[in-house]
Amino acid sequence: MVLESVLCPDCQSADVVKHGQSAAGKQRYKCRNPDCRRSTFVQAYSYRGYLPEVKYQITEMALNGSGIRDTSQVLGISPTTGIEELKKVSSPEAG
To answer: How many CB atoms lie within 10 A of CB 92?
Structure first.
């Protein structure tokens, strides 16, 4: 039996516990580091729109003048996901 250590993607802490399953049946984990801004995460997302790299690309493509339809088609995500991510980035409380 091989044990695979799970690290938090934000703080790289190993203080992680299982925290149920997502709607897609993936194992959800919870970071117990009090200084970490992320509470739960999934190691392998089934939808590309959840990936941090894709969220970054949505913002970059918008800043370079790409429309929502172009961005969603190129990245393989829903246009709604692109719009919601841009709302988060442009809101003042997003930080």
So the answer is: 5
